[in-house]
Amino acid sequence: MDESPRRIISKESFHNFELCKIFRAFSLWIEDTNLHQPNVCFSALGPNYCCERLKMIINNDQQDWFDLVSTDLLKDDLKQKLHSWESKKKDSFSNQITVESHEKSVQERLLIHLTKNKDFKPLSCPTVINPPMREIENIALSSWNILVELIESKQSIIFDKARFFTELASKLKQLNFNYKNLVPQEVFNEDLWETLTKSCHKGLKCTGPATFKLKVQRYVTNQRISEKIENNRMEHRLAQDQLLNLPVTELCIASIHIENYIRALSKEMENSKGEESLQYKNLGVSLFYHQIEAVNKVITSVKSFTPSRNFFSTSIESLGNVFICNQEEQLCALAKAILKYPEAGELAFDVFNPNVASISVFINLYEIITSTIRFSSPNTVFVLLYKIDLKGILRGKDVNFCDRRKLFKQICKTLLECGSSPSEELQMVHEVLTKHFRITLLFAFPEFYEDAISFVLHGMVRNELAINLWYEILHCFGCSTLKEESTMPAIESALKKYADDVLLPPDQQIFVSSQPVNIKEVVGTLERLHEMFMDERSSHKKSIYEVYEMHVKPFGIFLALLAHSMLCVLNENIYQKQGPNISQLWRLLHISFYPWLHPLKKETCFLFPWSDEQIENARFLFQLFVICLKNFHEKLSGYNCEKSILSYFWSSYVEIYVKSDLRHCYFCVSF
Questions:
Q1: pLDDT band at 408, cuts 50/70/90?
Q2: Do residues 375 and 341 make contact, with C-beta atoms less than 8 angstroms apart?
Q3: Which of 18, 495, 583, 662 has the greatest number of beta carbons closer than 10 A?
Q4: What stretch of H or E contains 191?
Q5: Distance between CA 503 and CA 553 in Å, rounded?
Q6: SS3 letters for 128-182?
Q7: CA dihedral 399, 401, 407, 409 (to 10 degrees)
Q8: Omega before 599 cis (within 30°)?
């Protein structure tokens, strides 16, 4: 193009020209009926545009779809925009004649654009346009019965269309299934005998023509199956046509009515005060729960039909954001509704915000959610629990000890209900509960130390405790690297580090997660474990290794960790200028492992606590016992002790095994 005749264009003229191009393209799209095919217009302008509605406005067609819309305002608005564009149309085209001379026309470029079978980004408007809606009569909002009747009359239309769509979709699925089964039966092989005659060839010595009978197979059409296939195709075509031509207008009418009622109710509540505002709020709250219950009754149809699902999702979200969201008094009722109607309750997940509750309401809410874990949808329970910011609640709500303990016990109770091996459906719920268990236990550790020990022992006895919870307690002691896959060298290294840390002054301990466990609590726990498992050995016919097989490894590590915690006595003796009480340390170490390692005497033989099948688990506990003995010996070597801990060990061995009427053997442990 020659640049010399190009004229300088003002900014206003340029924008006017662009607007005219858009207007011309829009006009062409309206006038050309060939462009209204679904495969053309939807890729270009998106599914939100409906040419039939625009045509109704232009033709002043006063159907009931517009009984809530002011068509006069729409027409006046269109006339103003058209007049503004047309007044500047001539100037903009005269200014741009040189620019457009070598370009294709707008119609040509638009046709090329629309005929391309590609995905285009839908047109978007940067501003929110609220349609001009007529005001709802006060009588519609004055009574709950009237409001529900008006909404249900329109809502039933949406339900009917959704049900009709679901039935058609199910019918199509069945027709497709029948078609796949009928096609292989349409043609089959039939055995036939064919008679063939072979003539003689000249020059060959033969006895004359020969006749042969051959058995052959031919394809035969099953007329009855063919008729069924043809009927199937006709029914499929009819159902598909019905599916593609659902009456959109009726759905739009019902949707606009209900949305307008919700908008009017919200507006009235905002503009009112006192008792009147409370009345509108109660109406909105009741309507919210009514919608969830109504949708749940026809949830199968609603989920299958996208327009109905989108509409109810929007209406429930709109009601929830205005009347339910961030309202503390509605949290428990909302959780109950979501748990009672899980599929419809999914539409209200965004409204649920448990973090705004006070601690008393939160504990009640937590009990409501976790108490339904056995008979509610695991996905629903998971989402409700996942939305809880427990760490933020414990820090920001000034929670007292009693409330924290009540919450902790509820978490423990729910974890036991999940079982020792949670199902695949409950796995996500169990992970969230484990996270809450860790947060609560670590918040002021060792505040709930005794409760945690009672919890794991109770779950261990009833075989309802998941193994990973043992390692959560080990994490609170500072051994966060230990897990079920840890090898013996890794366990030994972690215990040695823990022993080193225990002997440091309290202000220098960096390995322990928080405050150390009180020595009296450790002593009480070790004595309790000794008494418990000695009773288990005498009462069970099976060995305790067999009864608690899955818990042997984490329990053994926990036992060794508690034994190492006794080393803090050395620090206390230093501060009190006393020598370490080796006999006390040995006694606690001895009684800790005694139920698992030492035999019981019966007549002329020993009864060991393990069977041949459990020899590996017994070896594992022996190794842990040796690690404890080794670390005790090393840590005590620098202290002025009247007697080595190994001498106590040897004395105990002689006392248990060396009997005049029994054979005994010696064994050596090297350090």
A1: very high
A2: no
A3: 495
A4: strand 187-198
A5: 26
A6: CCCCCECCCCHHHHCCHHHHHHHHHHHHHHHHHHHHHHHHHHHHHHHHHHHHHHH
A7: 170
A8: no
As a whole number of angstroms, the distance between CA 414 and CA 379 comes to: 16
Distance (Å, rounded) from C-alpha 193 to C-alpha 21?
A: 77
Higher model confidence: residue 152 or residue 667? 152
**83-137: per-residue pLDDT in tens?**
766 666 655 555 554 444 455 666 666 566 656 655 555 556 566 655 555 567 6
Beta bridge partners of 605: 602
Assign 69 to helix, strand or coil.
strand
pTM: 0.70
Tens of pLDDT, residue by residue over 537-583, are 888 778 889 989 999 999 999 999 998 888 776 655 444 444 456 77
Q: Sign of dihedral through CA atoms 275, 277, 283, 289?
A: negative
Long-range contacts of 235-238 (CB under 8 A, 24+ apart): 235/171, 235/175, 236/172, 236/175, 236/176, 236/179
Name the token pair of 670. 């090297």
pLDDT in tens, 334-344: 999 999 998 88
CB-CB contact of 467 with 422 (8 Å) = no
The whole-angstrom separation of Cα 522 and Cα 530 is 12
Question: Which residues have a Cβ under 8 Å from the Cβ of 446 and sit 6 or more positions away?
Answer: 476, 514, 515, 516, 517, 518, 521
> Which tokens is 166 given?
């679901």
Is the CB of residue 269 less than 8 Å from the CB of residue 280?
Answer: yes
Strand partners, 428: none
The first and second tokens of residue 82, run together, are 């058209």
CA–CA gap between residue 373 and residue 390 (Å, rounded): 19
N-to-C CA span, the chain = 96
**Number of C-beta neighbours around residue 6 at 10 A:** 11
- 610-648 tens-digit pLDDT: 888 889 999 999 999 989 888 888 877 766 555 666 666
C-alpha span between 248 and 50 (Å, rounded)? 10
Backbone angles phi, psi at 482, to 5 degrees: -80, 140
Nearest to 394 by CA among 431, 335, 448, 349: 448
Distances (CA, A) of 561 to 145, 425, 458, 511: 67, 34, 20, 13
Please tell me whether residue 192 adopts helix, strand or coil conformation.
strand
Burial 155-168 (b: 16+ CB within 10 A, else e): bebbbbbbbbbbeb
Residue 249 CB contacts under 8 Å (≥ 6 apart), including other chains: 52, 63, 65
- By CB atoms closer than 10 A (0-12, 13-18, 19+), residue 334 is buried
Write the DSSP string, 444-492. Answer: TTTTTHHHHHHHHHHHHHTT---THHHHHHHHHHT-TT--TT--HHHHH
User: What whole-number distance in Å separates Cα of residue 163 and Cα of residue 298?
Assistant: 8
pLDDT at 201: 67
For residue 130, what pLDDT is reported? 59
**Per-residue 3-state assignment (H helix, E strand, C coil) for 302-352:** HHHCHHHHHHHHHHHHHHHHHHHCCCHHHHHHHHHHHHHCHHHHHHHHHHC
CB 356 within 8 A of CB 328: yes
Instruction: Report the Cα 310 to chain-centroid distance in Å.
Output: 20
What pLDDT band is residue 47 in, cutting at 50, 70 and 90? very low
Q: How far apart are CA 370 and CA 411, in angstroms?
A: 8
Res 288 pLDDT > 90: yes
